[in-house]
Specification:
The complex is a heterodimer of chains A (301) and B (225). Chain A is of the alpha+beta class and 301 residues long. Chain A is 66% helix and 8% strand. Chain A folds into 2 domains: 194 residues, no CATH class; 80 residues, no CATH class. In chain A, α7 runs antiparallel to α9 and α9 runs antiparallel to α10. Classes of the chains: A alpha+beta (301), B alpha/beta (225). Chains A and B meet through α2, α8 and α9 of A and α2 and α4 of B. Chain A: This is Cell division ABC transporter subunit FtsX.
């Protein structure tokens, strides 16, 4: 492993002489750097999207998998009685860890986003909700429904499956979309750099011809181009990552009210992931330019 | 070192050169003449591997050019100094760096070679033009720089295509002297030219053979020169 840093160091410090044989090209250099920067900026958001949806899917999975809700609609007089009956029944059901009737305040808080704070919900015939925590093994939903039908006719059991599945699916798709975007961004970076390298090689045909005449090997000629494009991609991607991270930092912080939309960002160790983008851009540029240079050179005399 | 065996070359139409056989012995001095368009430049290109013969064989340092890969060609060109008719340089580098380019690309740019470079630049009369860029230079200056670049690696063979085409008589004599000096050090020299005076001037100082390309063939020219 001690060889690798030396190679990388030599590559970055470089052969000053070898670099001089290719004329400086201000404008295309700027374009390459800009393209790498823009791609890195986009990669940051694709990465943030993937991570956020990944977290979201995990959270929904955990929260919803082991809980259910029992909704009791009954005439006002029977409400307390049916709630008590349901709680009794749930306590004797295998697989139910705990069951708790939500208080009027909690139910009010759940409705507030829809009705606003000022509505007198006490006067409305609101169903009573019971929150059920399941054990790891879970309970038999069909059996519980049958027993409820007999003892608590106003009860409806919601085991959350019909909510969880589409949400998890959507989160999974979003995550996949983010990963595909990252791959597409990498491929586009390679394409742009290949095109730029081809243009540079074509523009420097005379330089290459002169170098061949004086006995330069292809590897020497390729090195001059490869080093330039790799360093440009590294620089551009570094700028793009800094800009992208700043933009992510400026997003509003995650809040319970905003749901997943404001959760877009990095948390904990995942802040380190974007640091991988510039080296990856450099690696992509290195291989794209090397491939382009070798192909172009092998087609010459 | 350079060997042509029954070599022919055609650019697609009829053959420009056919049945050419020649062995360049170490230390020999050749002139190559012939009417323009006869194939002098093509012949030289065959001699340094820039063209692959359409039939027959060309061997550079005992290796058939058809069997050489691109790196082999690069290595062969370090041993064959070439002066082109229209010499090309890296236009963004000063002429001194251009002359030193063969050393640079072969990783032989040493301090000792650096003093040789200065000496060589003076020899070709460009001592005070070291920092000039190639596009700022006259045709004659470029040709002298090209010769300096061709010999800086101390190659075994120097092939020069009309090296005195753009320079005055005095400078062409100086270039000739340089090539004769190199020949005396054991280098093989081949100069394509149609300047008969140059050939006569050389013949008084060095054992030179004169080759003539005519009617697609390479002939040894008679003593009438």
């Amino acid at each position: 492993m001690s060889v690798l840093p030396t190679v990388v160091k030599e590559f970055i410090v470089g052969d000053v002489q070898a670099d001089r044989v290719v004329p400086p090209s201000g404008f295309t250099a700027t374009l390459t750097t800009f393209a790498a920067g823009a791609m890195a900026f986009l990669a940051i958001f694709a990465l943030a999207l993937s991570l956020a949806t990944g977290r979201l899917a995990a959270r929904w999975g955990d929260d919803l998998a082991h809980s259910s809700t029992l909704r009791i609609s009954a005439p006002e007089g029977q409400m307390a009685e049916q709630t008590a009956a349901a709680l009794r029944l749930l306590k004797t059901t295998p697989g139910v860890e705990s069951a708790r009737a939500l208080t009027a305040e909690e139910q009010g808080a759940l409705l507030e986003p829809w009705f606003g704070p000022d509505l007198p919900i006490e006067d409305l015939p609101i169903p009573q909700l019971i929150e059920i925590q399941e054990t790891q093994s879970g309970y038999d939903a069909a059996g519980l429904r049958l027993r409820l039908q007999g003892e608590v006719p106003g009860a409806v059991l919601d085991d959350h499956n019909r909510w969880r599945r589409p949400l998890e699916q959507a989160a999974g798709r979003l995550r996949l979309l983010g990963l595909v975007s990252i791959l597409l961004i990498a491929a586009t970076t390679a394409t742009i750099i290949t095109l730029a390298a081809n243009a540079a090689l074509a523009a420097n045909a005379q330089v290459i011809a002169v170098l061949r005449v004086v006995g330069a090997q292809d590897s020497y000629i390729a090195k001059a181009f490869v080093r330039r494009f790799t360093l440009r991609a590294l620089l551009g991607a570094a700028i793009g990552v800094v800009a992208g991270m700043a933009a992510v930092l400026l997003l509003p912080a995650a809040q319970p009210e905003g749901g997943f939309l404001t959760g877009l960002g990095f948390q904990g160790g995942s802040w380190l992931l974007p640091m991988l983008i510039p080296p990856l851009a450099g690696v992509v540029a290195y291989f794209a330019t090397r491939h382009a240079a070798r192909r172009t050179l092998s087609e010459l005399d | 070192m350079i060997e042509l065996d029954n070599t022919a070359y055609s650019y697609g139409g009829g053959e420009l050169l056919s049945n050419i056989s020649l062995k360049l012995a170490p230390g020999s001095f050749h002139f190559l003449t012939g009417p323009s368009g006869a194939g002098k430049t093509t012949f030289l290109k065959l001699c340094y591997g820039a063209l692959i013969p359409t039939s027959g064989h060309v061997r550079l340092f005992d290796q058939d050019v058809r069997d050489m890969d691109r790196d082999d060609h690069a290595m062969a060109r370090r041993r064959i100094g070439v002066v082109h008719q229209d010499c090309q340089f890296l236009d963004h580098l000063p002429i001194a760096d251009n002359v030193a380019l063969p050393l640079m690309v072969s990783g032989r740019e040493t301090l000792e070679n650096h003093s040789n470079l200065k000496e060589l630049m003076h020899w070709v009369g460009l001592g005070n033009r070291a920092n000039a860029l190639p596009p700022e230079m006259s045709g004659g200056e470029r040709q002298r720089a090209a010769l300096a670049r061709a010999v800086i690696m101390s190659p075994d063979v120097v092939l020069a295509d009309e090296p005195t085409g753009n320079v005055d008589w005095e400078m062409s004599q100086r270039l000739l002297q340089l090539l004769i000096e190199l020949n005396k050090m054991g280098k093989t020299i081949m100069i394509a030219t149609h300047d008969m005076n140059l050939i006569r001037a050389a013949k008084s100082q060095v054992q030179a053979r004169v080759l003539r390309i005519a009617n697609r063939k390479l002939q040894l020219a008679g003593a009438d020169l």
